[in-house]
């Protein structure tokens, strides 16, 4: 599945300003391609925003290398003549596109070391994204244009992203409002490429995690110690556009492609509100901490921040996917003595042992409600339960299986849009508490850097959640793994 990646090439003659500017006479030794050691001769256009070098390997495919611009410049400055008059003949729009979307010219010739008779090409103007055109149909890997960030937005280069069940629900659109064409993805890590007006706490080069629910730091929720439901930037699953102007930043030949959760990380570049971006320690490995961007923090926080199991307590976790196992990790972290895993997929049980789950219950093995089974094995019910399935019956069971007098149940799964939670009010009267949470009640900008530090200090483990890895062009495989119940988290590498 997935189309092969194709890139468009434009001869310089299509860009009048460049022909003029290409009166460049001499290009000395090129930069060394760090991956292959192959010598290149990119014609370097000296704009401070140029931070990517696209080089062509005439024998193989096009590859993208991220180089340190300053180092590149220092190494090559004496040999490269900088284009100076490139603005000539360009509208500011073309200019903007060039500055923000490409960066470089380079020459292609039978003999790569000659420059006199070069044929220059301007590299593609778009970025590669996985576009979902229709509910339940494989994503299509294709070029999209990604507009520059507007006020209070950042554009970031995604390096790693992973698939969460929430992407799958909205892609299937069986129980959710369909919004297509759309770019899914909300669990990711990357690097800020550029920032829009008014963004002061993020700069190009920052290592960041985008988060589907934001933190403006000014609203009544952000000012409350108890809430992460920012009035401005709280999760909105139906909105496919940016807040600043109600427009999408993605397009293909002028057709808008909608955003998802304000993050749309299944794209080489994406535009996100700066309030939905957490700056993290640059030493953190992005291919691991990307799962903090949703799954891990959601489950871990649901336990640690919301359920708050006392030491020695018994915790039930419904749904043993990455979110549920993160909730189990939270139970272990809190010192729970029994963690009961509930899942209808028995293949999850073996794996869940690594996450401190001590007992397993498969509701399918019983002909009575699972809450009754749990009440029997726990002498009246669990102290805490965390629901991470999205199934409304599991939600009801998760509530009804907590002990009367003190039991607390926390709902995390995203339900079908028509789901109705039904229980007898006496279950509340007998002093059970029902709560729910997005993103484990973490305030993304304030709290996420600290969770990253916990990982770096080895207080929490992320590696065990990563069961699969695929290259971006194989992104549809990540959907298959999740649908078949095979994966916890499948990391999608963008640079391959
Ligand atoms: N509240 C939030 O902020 C938030 C954030 C991320 C994900 N989510 C939601 O959390 C849920 C879990 O996400 P995930 O990525 O771990 O998904 P996943 O598909 O990897 O795991 C879900 C697990 O639940 C099990 N399950 C399904 N129905 C069940 C039932 N009736 N009883 C017991 N087990 C059942 C499945 O077998 C599976 O193992 C999804 O609903 C997702 O949309 C919520
Ligand atoms: Zn998620
Ligand atoms: Zn706010």
Automatic annotation (TrEMBL):
Major location (coarse): cytoplasm
Domain (Alcohol dehydrogenase-like C-terminal): residue spans on this chain: 322-453
Catalytic reaction annotation: a secondary alcohol + NAD(+) = a ketone + NADH + H(+); a primary alcohol + NAD(+) = an aldehyde + NADH + H(+)
Residue ranges annotated for the Alcohol dehydrogenase-like N-terminal domain, each copy included: 152-280
Assigned keywords, A-Z: Cytoplasm, Metal-binding, NAD, Oxidoreductase, Zinc
Domain of life where this protein originates: Eukaryota
E.C. designation(s): 1.1.1.1
GO biological process annotation, one example: formaldehyde catabolic process
Protein family (similarity comment): Belongs to the zinc-containing alcohol dehydrogenase family.
Annotated protein name in UniProt: Alcohol dehydrogenase 1
Species of origin: Zingiber officinale (Ginger)
């Amino acid at each position: 599945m997935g189309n092969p990646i194709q890139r468009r090439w434009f001869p310089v003659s299509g860009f009048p300003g460049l022909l003029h500017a290409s009166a460049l006479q001499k290009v000395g030794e090129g930069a060394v391609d760090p991956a292959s050691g192959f010598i290149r001769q990119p014609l370097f256009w000296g704009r401070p925003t140029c931070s990517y070098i696209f080089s062509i390997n005439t024998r193989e495919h096009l590859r993208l290398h991220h180089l340190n611009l300053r180092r590149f410049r220092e190494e090559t400055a004496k040999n490269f003549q900088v284009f100076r008059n490139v603005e000539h003949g360009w509208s500011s729009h073309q200019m903007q596109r060039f500055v923000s979307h490409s960066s470089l010219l380079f020459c292609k010739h039978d003999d790569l070391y000659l420059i006199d008779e070069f044929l220059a090409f301007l590299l593609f103007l778009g970025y590669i994204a996985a576009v979902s055109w229709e509910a339940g149909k494989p994503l299509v890997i294709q070029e999209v244009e990604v507009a520059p960030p507007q006020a209070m937005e950042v554009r970031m280069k995604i390096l790693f992203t992973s698939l969460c069940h929430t992407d799958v629900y909205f892609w299937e659109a069986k129980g959710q409002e369909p919004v297509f064409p759309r770019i899914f993805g909300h669990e990711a890590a990357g690097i800020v490429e550029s920032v829009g007006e008014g963004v002061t706490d993020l700069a190009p080069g920052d290592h960041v995690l985008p988060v589907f629910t934001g933190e403006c730091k000014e609203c009544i929720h952000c000012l409350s110690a108890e809430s992460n439901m920012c009035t401005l930037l709280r999760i909105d699953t139906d909105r496919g556009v940016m807040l600043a102007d109600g427009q999408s930043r993605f397009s293909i030949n002028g057709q808008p492609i909608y955003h998802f959760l304000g993050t749309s990380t299944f794209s080489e570049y994406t535009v996100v509100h700066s309030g939905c971006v957490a700056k993290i320690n640059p030493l953190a490995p992005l291919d691991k901490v990307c799962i903090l961007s949703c799954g891990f923090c959601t489950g871990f926080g649901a336990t640690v921040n919301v359920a708050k199991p006392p030491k020695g307590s018994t915790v039930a976790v419904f749904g043993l996917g990455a979110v549920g196992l993160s909730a189990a990790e939270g139970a272990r972290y809190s010192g729970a003595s029994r963690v009961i895993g509930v899942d209808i997929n028995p293949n999850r049980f073996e794996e869940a042992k690594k996450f401190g789950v001590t007992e397993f219950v498969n509701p399918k093995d019983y002909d009575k409600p699972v809450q009754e089974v749990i009440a029997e094995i726990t002498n009246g019910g669990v102290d805490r339960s965390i629901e991470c399935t999205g199934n409304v019956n599991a939600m009801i069971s998760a509530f009804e299986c907590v002990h009367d007098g003190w039991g607390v149940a926390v709902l995390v799964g995203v339900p079908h849009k028509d789901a109705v939670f039904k229980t007898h009010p006496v279950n509340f009267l007998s002093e059970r508490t029902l709560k729910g949470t997005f993103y484990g009640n973490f305030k993304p900008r304030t709290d996420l850097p600290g969770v990253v530090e916990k990982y770096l200090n080895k207080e929490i483990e992320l590696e065990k959640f990563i069961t699969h890895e695929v290259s971006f062009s194989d992104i549809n495989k990540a959907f298959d793994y999740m649908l078949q119940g095979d994966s916890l988290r499948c990391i999608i590498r963008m640079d391959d």
